[in-house]
Amino acid sequence: MNENTNNKWVWIGAAVLLVALCVLPFLVKNFRVFQFNMVMIYAIAVLGLNILTGFNGQISLGHGAFYAIGAYVAAILMDKAGVPYWATLPFSAVICFVVGYLMGFPALRLGGHYLALATFALALAIPQMLKYKGIEEWTGGVQGIVLNKPEAPFELSVLGQPLSADRWLYFYILLVTAIMFLIAWRLLRGRVGRALVAIRDHPIAASAMGVNLPVYKSLTFGVSAAFTGVAGALSATAVAFVSPDSFTSFLSITFLVGVVVGGLASIPGAIAGAIFIQFVPNIADEISKSAPWAIYGIFLILLMYLMPTGVAGLISKIYSRLRGGPAAASAGRSVASAVSQPVGGSQS
Amino acid sequence: MEALLHQIFAGIANGGIYASVGLALVMIHQATHHINFAQGEMATFSTFIAWWLIQNGWPYWGAFFFTVAISFALGLLIQRTVLKPVEKAPVLTNVIVFVGLLVIFNALAGWIFDHTIKSFPTPFPKGSLIDTQFFSSHEIGSILVMLCVLGALYAFFRFTPLGLAMRAAAQNPESARLVGVRVSWMLGMGWGLAAAIGAVAGMMIAPIVFLDPNMMGGILLYGFAAALLGGIDNPWGAVIGGFIVGILENLLGAYVIGTELKLTVALILIVGTLTLKPDGLFGKAVVTRV
Amino acid sequence: MPELLEVKGLKASYGPTQVLFDIDFTLSQGQITTILGANGAGKTTTLRAVCQAVKTSGSVLFDGQQVVGKSTESVVRMGVAQVPDGRGTFTALSVEENLRLGAYVRKDKAEVAIDMEKAYARFPRLKERRNQQAGTLSGGEQQMLAISRALMLRPRMLLLDEPSFGLAPLIVAEIFRILRRINEEEKVSMLLVEQNANLALGLAHHAYLLETGRIVISGPSETIKNDETVRKVYLGY
């Protein structure tokens, strides 16, 4: 009897949430809707990085590169080949998957800082590569590519607000986000997820138990890159503009901030992280042009001291305190212990 | 032929700077087994301090040495305060803290000194005694300065008790404690030295590329490449690696790829070294214990 | 006369695992005391506790001063030198650099130079290899180096952790002979931790037997050596 009641409440809660999400864009101004769109896009990007760094322990300081590749692939397809915006996603996903998978190979031999170093190098080099005159015909060089935001395919008015381009994109992005999170959830919950965490925490033991390390690690890199690439492709549509200077090394750092704030190895944490990286700079921007980064930096360091398990870990701890059960407590503990284990392959 | 020679010499001149950044990275890695991602931004910040002093009437060399001293103190302070709590934490935690420092220094530089590009004076102006056909006087001057720094460091580590203690602390902290070496302070001093070296590198590169908060981003990459190429635990390797990187960068940029993809060269060097020869050209094998 | 080293109620833990349970022992000035025990008994931990290299509680009085709570570096400065297990050599540094490090905390340069010559006189093999990398020395030579390095401090108390470990019997005999000479001539007090009970009892004046973190027997080494029951049950010979 209890389970049925519980299930009923979950369904009701989900329905309420769904209605709220659908009404939301009509309650606020266009610009705010755009910001919500960016939150969802960042959530996918952060989720991608989390798969690699949080679940699998491979530190990437260069995920901005995959975001950029995804964005440029989408932009070039839309601009030069007239591909409709919704069809660009698979292309970005596949290309980023391949690039990520290939990057997985040198990464196999690198642990800890060396991988962070190599990916950081990638992040630093990407803007220059995008500006390269040799491929300017495709990439638009320094100026980048300007695109048109797709208009809604039909007229609609809710609560007095029209279905603008941003609002239409909101629903499109919401759908994609839901799909991506579902894919991640299915991937990481089962055997695959356990294998990833095993590789992160005890690589040699995992290998000895038959987990094919090189394949898993490279695949993880590929999948992680694909996720962030999809986010990049969405951003090309949502922002309607790509340029090399939008994808500096600071973007990669931003994603890492999102992972850390949201919580390592936490799927819902990606949303918390995305909200943080979208809105905190706006608030801090009012203080000084440089301040957002100083805030980020201080916050990162403080987080590492005080709350290494991020928002997700904090909520988990609170939840286990309220629930009081051993299952809840151990769930919290597993996240906490995940963070306190040495991350990455080697290095004493 | 002359053009080729000039490219090589320019490469050597730049190489000296990459060598210093690489050296700073190796020093910190030797002592702490961590890579200081904030090295570039700290160096830029130091250079801004020097700039500000000079703007306020300080003579060049006065500002130079004061900046070096302050950078040393700053590096020491950061290790003792920010890094000590996470000394034993996992790699990811440390990487994030370094990234945090990187970001803070970059933001502080922009906030305090603003983002306009500034020119930075050189103590070796054109037309001075050492100006030659192949090298500008600044290029010769900065190579000389770098060699002095490297020589001083070598002498320090080889011949002074404190240098010996630092080497001991980096190699075997437990035994070092048993002879009374204050290992934690040695770590701090390692950071201080690295910060000081970075400051010198910054002040030598600023006259060439002009001073702004993002000055060292690309140079840090070359410093990484230099350190890796030479073997991440080998100070001499970093020096030689720096010169190799400098020459390669210039030659490839002039004759093969064009100057726009120089950072890609660094990237390929880094990934290539890590993949093909992770110990670098001169390093010892890094063995992972099961 | 108060003892040089007085340990009371010493407890030590590695994280949540307690290894020493309330042990008491003393070392008198000018004497050699040995702590015996099997593998895992807690012998090395005891020495580390004296040097404050492990979490301890209880009382450790060196020359009347409380040591618990100090840093290892401060304990060293009080005149305590340790020859760690596994030698603890700075393998990448030269023999001479290792010796210089032993005297790191001393300010009397002239005396340090004299001590360095004494070390070379005592172990001519080290003098032959003075500029060689310490890691290339044989096990026995590294042990000589480790002892010499500790003596460079001119310590009031020398802690030795399993000096016989992994060495050929002839070398071990030589080393123990030299240790006795050092104790007799230079009056250096020693706390010796050993698995090889026979050797240790031959050198020490006083002995303690440690079994899983507790002292089970103590007494003059002569008595213990001659007690057949103790020998058979605890020392295995």
What does this structure look like?
The complex is a heterotrimer of chains A (348), B (290) and C (237). With 348 residues, chain A is mainly α. Chain A has 15 helices and four strands. Chain A has helices at residues 2-27, 30-55, 63-80, 88-108, 112-131, 136-139, 165-189, 191-201, 203-208, 213-239, 249-262, 269-285, 291-306, 310-323, 326-340; strands at 145-146, 157-158, 161-162, 241-242. In chain A, the strands form two sheets. Chain A has a two-stranded antiparallel sheet with strand order 1-4. Chain A has a two-stranded antiparallel sheet with strand order 2-3. In chain A, strand 2 (157-158) and strand 3 (161-162) form a beta hairpin. In chain A, helix 2 runs parallel beside helix 7 (165-189). Chain A starts with a helix and ends in an 8-residue tail after the last helix. Chain B is an all-alpha fold and 290 residues long. Chain B has a single domain, classed as Orthogonal Bundle (ABC transporter involved in vitamin B12 uptake, BtuC), CATH 1.10.3470. The N and C termini of chain B lie far apart (53 Å). Chain C has ten helices and ten strands. In chain C, the strands form two sheets. Chain C has a six-stranded mixed sheet, sandwiched between helices. Chain C has a four-stranded antiparallel sheet with strand order 2-1-4-5, covered by helices on one side. The mean pLDDT of chain C is 89. Chains in contact: A-B, B-C. Chains A and B meet through helix 5, helix 11 and helix 13 of A and helix 4, helix 9 and helix 11 of B.
**What's the count of strands of chain B?**
0
Terminal Cα separation of chain B, in Å?
A: 53 Å
**Intertermini distance of chain C:** 36 Å
**Oligomeric composition of the shown chains:** heterotrimer
Regarding CATH, which class of chain B? Mainly Alpha
What is the CA-atom radius of gyration of chain B, in angstroms?
Answer: 19 Å
Percent strand of chain B equals under 5%
Q: CATH topology of chain B, which one?
A: ABC transporter involved in vitamin B12 uptake, BtuC
* DSSP helix fraction of chain B: over 70%
Q: What's the helix-strand series of chain C? A: EEEHEEHEHHHHEHEHEEHH
Helix count of chain B equals: 11
Average predicted local confidence, pLDDT of chain C: 89
CATH architecture of chain B: Orthogonal Bundle
- How many strand elements of chain C? 10
Principal-axes geometry of chain C comes out as globular
Mean pLDDT of chain B: 83
Shape of chain B: globular
Largest interface: A-B, 60 and 55 residues
